[in-house]
Amino acid sequence: VLTFRLRAPGAPVTLVRIACVAVLASAIPLAGPVGVAGASSVDPALALEVEHAVTRILAIEGDPDYGAYLGGECVTCHQKSGHAGGVPPISGLPVDYTVGALVAYKLGARTNDVMKLMTARLGDEEIAALAVYIAGMGTE
Ligand code: HEC
User: Fold this and answer.
1) Residue 2 burial (C-beta neighbours within 10 Å; 0-12, 13-18, 19+)
2) pLDDT tens string 28-84
3) Which of 90, 91, 117 to mutate to test ligand 1, by most ligand atoms within 8 A of the CB atom?
4) What is the pLDDT of residue 9?
5) Distance of CA 72 from the midpoint of ligand 1 (Å)
6) Which of 4-8, 101-105, 108-112 comes out lowest in average pLDDT?
7) Which residue owns the Cα nearest ligand 1 atom 34?
């Protein structure tokens, strides 16, 4: 552990030390097993959190009609076939893959600002429904 002797006039020593730890922590890449599809390096605790959420959501029977309703917004970016301006196609992705990806974006194990925003307000029911809908989507 590195100790910095920062002398910020008036700043309590403990505050300075906490700031240093925060900076150090953010500079160290999180190492760990890659248990999340598409994630580069994920903190093991986060990977476990993702795994638990995925297991929980896969136990829910997704409603494809609800998924189609929610998914209308998704296909404005995700075209039914092919890449559209850097946006990957999602039609026909397996349910477990989609659930894994959406949970990873939501919890921050996959980092993408757009998809983080898109998944932030999705609950378990919504993710289950979207995954079933996407799996059944044709590519035509
Ligand atoms: C504003 C554009 C946009 C919208 C709307 C959008 N996405 Fe995405 N999505 C992206 C982009 C860009 C990526 C690639 C992100 C990356 O690099 O990880 C992505 C990635 C994904 C992936 C991972 C694909 C893979 O091959 O791993 C899934 C699944 C997905 N989106 C599902 C959805 C769902 C479901 C919705 C609707 C709730 C949605 N997206 C809405 C832009 C969008």
Assistant:
1) exposed
2) 333 333 345 555 578 999 999 999 999 999 999 999 999 999 999 999 999 877 677
3) 90
4) 53
5) 13
6) 4-8
7) 74
Question: Does the pLDDT of residue 102 top 50, yes or no?
Answer: yes
- Paired tokens of 88: 């990957």
Is the model's pLDDT at 86 over the cut of 90? no
Residues flanking ligand 1, CB < 6 Å = 38, 73-74, 76-78, 86-88, 90, 93, 98, 101-102, 110, 112, 114-115, 118, 130
> First-to-last CA distance in the chain?
57
What span, in angstroms and rounded, lies between the C-alpha atoms of 60 and 102? Answer: 15
Q: Which atom of ligand 1 is nearest to the CA of 37?
A: 27
For residues 15 and 7, give the distance between their C-alpha atoms in angstroms, rounded to a whole number.
Answer: 11
| Distance, C-alpha 113 to centroid of its chain | 10
Angle at 112 between CA 109 and CA 118, to 5 degrees: 95
